[in-house]
């Protein structure tokens, strides 16, 4: 399918695809077959190969060692890395590193960029985004935020309890969402504080066990539960303007939602590739694989919906490069998340017992993709945003007409008789 | 929502929208409220108004009186006309006129263009496309075509039985699909023959009663059942190359499928407008309309899927302007048809009893849109096309891996022991 | 499928089935083929035949001429009559006659039974249930009821505006829901008043045009819009206890919802029969009917869901014969309505163009069944009822555990620090 | 909800429920909270407690120590044990032990019953059912069976490769499906051979890693991959009649499918309980939990579908106690499996991040339930069975009518003209 991406976007994506096909997918297959994990040293080697091919951190400015791609142009590359369980990690296009780099680049000070952004882009550091708290459930309600950072002289004193901090176990520092002005509504009184992991009082409680994949990377630290107990950092560690934490997080999340869409679209495409390969070959053995026709028709629907998602995400990326694109991103997120879930379910069904066994990546995809309908805002929250927008511009002339037959004709006459309390 | 349509496309669509809002929708509402139909004279008046606004037959070349828009540029205008039950008719952007004009413009002779295309573009003639036959069910299987046209001197002698010929009751002439070379496979031996209605042997059996709307137009001739009994027309009445009937029909249908998507997207948008207006206002009366929240969330989903459809149709229109775009069109058709059906169902649910009463256009939309999943190829046929394409480029390296765990490890050892007949 | 119905139930149902197969279905087919309607005289003949076979009004006590079946026992007979567009009418098992007879039998005075119930059971009178009002939309919110009946001496003076009164055009009398005590909440101050059609002030405004079937019966009066203008009837015309209108209506509707489920299950079964017949035969012509396999699998799902509905409705009927069975009925209604809608949609898809043409009953089924998700309470209202019940008996020990991980561990420590206003 | 189960069924189920609430669920919660697993000794203690309460192996005859319940009567007890991840194990009502006991009881010799069945019922032995082979994918196609058992004197020599043998790692013996007559079709030439694990040549390759739960039991051996290399056992180890392996397996699977439905219904009920508890309590914290209304409506639908499944499974159990009930079981299996999958998906959505974390059992339920649409025959195979049955008794009079409008009227006239090869 030709998607009219820019020449630059296609050129980079072509090289990413080659890296996936030649290096990453074969490695992933080997790990799944053997049950081994990739050590940190092996990951560093992968990164070297990606850098040699000029593929590392493609969404970052060239001055930091990235490829300088905007959302529209990074899109096909991010689809490519999504095809493998270790694809995004292999070129550091994975969440949360990618979003944290984006944040530091947008609002960080020059010092923060030198001390933290550059090493992130180089793969010399790892970071966590410490936002979700146990009280918030899935983190969808910012008003529930309870972590605080209180100024004491030149220092912030951070106290709080977080979980689902991705890559948290291996992180060198955290971007912590904390209330810094308790007299303000959380939307207005929250800031992002950079906390190095080695600071006193940072307590890594555990990695939250969860549905999903066998971990292929030694480094992939799962989702940490962390307590911040009277943690002191200099006030210079404020990331972006004080009190603007939610606005910055929203910017971060807008892009993050869309890059998730890109990666998961690639994952869905891979699952379809494997399913089609399996169905095609089984056919060769004389088995009709129990109602192949039905599965083929369902694959056609899956391809169609994935195509629609990819069109919609491209539309949103073009918008996001020039505006906030809140509705476009919300639509893309909720649609892509649901389509990718459907596709993984279909892939499992096509593959039978192989679909739930860890020998192929599909079982891991299936467990992994479920959370996509929850994190970065569950479906219901995005639908609420979309509905609110949809109901803003109600066609008033339609109202008159729509109600004409149950009201206009009778309201006047009945109004007088209606009981006063009704 | 901003769709990045061209300036020209937006300019024309803006004027079409104004025509709908100022003239067509008020007229539609009046007809629904009174139960009246629009006479042919009143339709002619509508056409005059559309011509004065330079909106008539927007998809036709300017030399014939149209606006010269290609698929990408006619798109937002066609969405606009779809909003009303009489919108497409009001500017002659309705099927089958629109597709027939497109066909004559593409492959007609100069004489045919003067004698038939120009009057069609001017609204002075009406035409039918006589393809579907009773034996074919929904017309999906061209191999079942039984109508024949046999050369006898300078004349074709046409015999056959057709139904579902839209606008057939009022048509001045028909484009008839007929087998002209019985020794060839129907794909290769079929031609399109232009048959004036007044020719001897043309027998209009009946209008097929069907699910759907109250007819708002006197002229809208429903879907005719027609017999062609030894009908003789000159061989010059062949439309396009002899024996290429299916290829021409495919070209015609490709565009027709996409313009249907555009119009039905507009219809779905209108249904959502009415639903939102109704829900908004009911709220004002203190009623929570039984689980409004749920309906709002479903409307958010409807808006999202319609948005995805509109992105996908735009992508396909851009492709169709420069290629056959077979898969893009098939995906757009099957997806848009299903989304529009879902949306009409939702609109009926939002409107309650008003959703099934003829006072509002939604009941008519609901009946009308159902056929969209059948005509121009039912869902199953498009999915077959899409699946065939999807299975063309199966990733061979995935095959090896996908089967590795149920075959490679054991095939060799077991093969020897397997019973010979297995 | 064997459903363990009682011997009596099976015996009657067997005779109803024979009547349908021998008399009613052939007549229905003839009407559809010719476009004719059944005159009132012809309907009377049908009724004579049903009476001769001891099938008329099977749910009524034998003393009135019925068969004395309770809900569990009438069930398979009602499924049978649902198979035809005119089946329920042919033995007077149709709504609203059936529910009105049930109401009069339950709460009518001896005089009302003699004057109105007996002629209803004999087919000598027809009745309407005048409940829904334009302000209520689909009639789901009883608090919106605006029709009043004010006592003036020995008479009720009824004023109000109703619509969707089924069979209203042909009714000899109406059971009118009206507020009789304006100081009470509508639930407590509403009564049912019997109003003969010929009473002065009864104004039949129109039949509401609506989505659906070609009418096969001259007598089937559609759904009337009626105004009651200072209509005076004796206070003896109160049906059941004064002020208990809603309680009586609920009893009536509980049974009515379940008999609707029975009839529509039969309709769905017929649609599947036609679809299977069509698919089977088309196969014989060498056509694979575009992805027959897929349609077969979808038919398997349709059969499965219909089977589940029939099991659930049977369970509810057994309960309703001995209790209010509110949740069982609500579940049966919302489930059956949705399954029957799905099945009609599938049948249309199986039949292609024949599915939307009026030559077969399926197009009429499709239009007709849509309203089943709206009348007698839309889906959303039943789901609310079910949810309210489901949340009544929440497992408290699960609460503790469910919240343990986002609250117990942290609530204590954080509570102290949480800002006072949170 | 009252399900009209027999008094005996209700009495036992009540005691099972108490055991779950008092002993099993608290233990499960403790394991999830601590991440510990239950050792074999602890499991033995659980069994003692279950035996003391007369709950162990309730489906087995009393002479072996069971409760002697038939399918209809064991049903509510099996629903109860399904509520916990360790419930079925705690009273030995888990697959495959339960099905293997059923098999030995049905067709085993007296010696086999004494040597293997009695210890199974006592919990002194564990068994595996070794049927699925890698070549079969999900095991749905018995014709692909490749394992052989060849007679050599008084011994069977078994060779083959199996996987997905549940509890295989801990099993003391296996029931192995093997082709014993290579000249026969597998349906007729297959037998079940009992192979003690310690026999020479039995090679346990690995436990197949798969999607799903954290394992709570030390003993739960996952799904083993096993090779049988020239394994020799006495011919007396044939279980049931030689050559009747498939027939016996079908009997075993029929019951097994239904007991799976019972257990998974209980699991779904538990997931709903947790979801409702969570939503209820969150409400107390002032959060509206993002569109609670929508989730409540979806829970209402979930409760409704689960109710329908439970009605359908009860119907099937009554049938299975007196017939093969092939279609009833197939419908129950495919319906329940899909409903339970839907419900787990909903539960995860209700619980947000807690839905995918291992702290609650829901994440494990979600992974576990996915396989239910694959094992014991994937959806597609059951739908094929149902469809085959549905198309057996096509209504011939409907065929005539259904085709009347596209064929009868025209076939005769057109047949003559149709090209010979068409």
UniProtKB/TrEMBL annotation, chains A, B, C, D:
- The chain positions of domain Acyl-CoA dehydrogenase/oxidase C-terminal read 243-390
Q: Transmembrane segments in this chain: where? A: none
Keywords tagged on the record = FAD, Flavoprotein, Oxidoreductase
Acyl-CoA dehydrogenase/oxidase N-terminal domain residues are 6-124
This entry's Gene Ontology molecular function terms read: oxidoreductase activity
Question: Which ranges carry the Acyl-CoA oxidase/dehydrogenase middle domain?
Answer: 129-212
Asked whether the keyword Oxidoreductase is assigned, the reply is yes
- What is the name listed in the Swiss-Prot or TrEMBL entry for this protein? Acyl-CoA dehydrogenase family protein
Native species of this protein? Halomarina rubra
